[in-house]
Design a protein that fits this description.
Layout (H helix, E strand, L loop, with lengths): L1 H51 L11 H10 L7 E5 L5 H10 L2 E6 L2 H13 L6 E5 L12 E4 L3 H6 L1 H4 L7 E5 L10 E6 L5 E8 L5 H7 L1
Parallel strand pairs: 1-2, 1-4, 2-3, 4-5
Antiparallel strand pairs: 5-7, 6-7
Helix pairs in contact: 2-3
């Protein structure tokens, strides 16, 4: 009888343990599904918000001679990662890949610009080196960049400062036409554009040199 009850107890224990284990697996699966759904929902929401927001600037292409000078001034090296914030038709990241052997990531909030950039990438056969992404540039994590190129507006350059302050040391930032108020450039050059005005190009290197800090130290 003792053996029978002992066996019965063991069986009941095994059944209970199996039920508990099964319940735990179901609970974990539900939790994983909920987490995945939340992540997907968050991504979908961000994508919808990006599509709703209008571009901050009207697209004006950077002349190719200026593109070349920007990348030369930044001393882009083979294998480095170039981010173009507001990539337009993708000409900067395409040039970085073709002429300098760099990897490029172009970001734009305008679907039409994304389409043009992708066509440009395909036309120049640099799909293995260049990625074009529809995104809000003010929500990007820029930590992978070695070089960042800009052709925005002075106020938008300033708006990027909190993101640029988080970059690793030695990242080069180049801007066509517009400076960055409150931040001292390392270099400023002008580029002659045929049948057009001279175009200024600014270079900064991280960590950014804030003008207030410079004046205080003086």
């Amino acid at each position: 009888m003792r053996l029978f009850f002992g066996t019965q107890f063991a069986i009941r224990t095994a059944v209970v343990m199996t039920a508990l284990f099964g319940a735990a697996l179901v609970c974990q699966a539900q939790k994983d599904t909920a987490t995945k759904k939340q992540t997907t929902t968050k991504k979908d929401t961000e994508k919808q918000e990006t599509k709703k927001r209008r571009p901050d600037v009207i697209f004006v292409p950077t002349p190719q001679v200026v593109v070349d000078k920007m990348l030369e001034l930044a001393k882009v090296k083979k294998g480095e990662v170039v981010y173009d914030l507001g990539c337009g038709d993708g000409r900067i990241v395409v040039t970085a890949a073709k002429k300098f052997g760099a990897k490029g990531k172009g970001f734009d909030i305008d679907p039409q610009r994304i389409k043009e950039s992708l066509e440009n990438v395909k036309k120049n056969k640099v799909e293995d080196k260049v990625e074009i992404i529809e995104a809000d540039i003010f929500k990007l994590d820029l930590k992978e960049a070695d070089v960042i190129t800009l052709y925005l507006l002075p106020s938008l350059n300033v708006k990027l400062i909190p993101q640029l302050d988080k970059l690793k040391p030695g990242v080069r930032i180049v801007s066509h036409d517009f400076d960055m108020q409150g931040v001292k450039p390392d270099q400023e050059v002008t580029v002659e554009v045929e049948d057009d005005r001279e175009r200024p190009v600014y270079l900064w290197t991280t960590p950014l040199k804030k003008e207030k800090e410079t004046k205080a130290s003086e």
